[in-house]
UniProtKB/TrEMBL annotation:
Superkingdom, natural source: Bacteria
Residues in the signal sequence: none
Name the UniProt record assigns to this protein: N-acetyltransferase
Keywords of the record: Transferase
Organism the protein comes from: Bailinhaonella thermotolerans
Transmembrane residue ranges: none
Lineage: Bacteria, Bacillati, Actinomycetota, Actinomycetes, Streptosporangiales
Annotated N-acetyltransferase domain residues: 2-163
MF-aspect GO terms: acyltransferase activity, transferring groups other than amino-acyl groups
Amino acid sequence: MTKMRDFEPGDAAAIASWVRDAHEMVLWSGKCGFTWPLDGGQILRFYERDSRRAWTLTCDGGEPVGHITLRTDTPGWTGRVGLVIVDPAERGKGHAEAMVRHVVDHAFGELGLHRVELGVYVQNAGAIRVYERLGFVREGLAREVAHAGGEWWSAYEMSVLAGEWKSPAAGR
């Protein structure tokens, strides 16, 4: 049984431990400014200066197995999903989809946003499948926006609108 709750400072070390190398760090965090080797302290300092809302997915016993964030724009029309990660031992079990669904339901329901967007690197095929399955649409390609392992990475910009979203209760 899994449960979403607000991110707590004690989650930072577990989240950092899921990022196994500098390549994965960029894949997960993009241009957030983390440096390798990643540690829980960097994550805590990031959230001290950042205004996004963060959640942790926990399994039986309360152990963290996933993490996700939502940042909203000033007029409160758009939210941006980010920093989506699942413990490597828990991948392939539907946790990412459950987290994204929870955050988008929150964005459209409780916050009344009109649009939710995200960026995903083109080589992250698993994440792209999850986002498309949930109704996100590719809007464009941001070319060579990050540099990792001596390569430039491009990212898809994706979004879903409130009128397109169907919550789990509606059968999506």
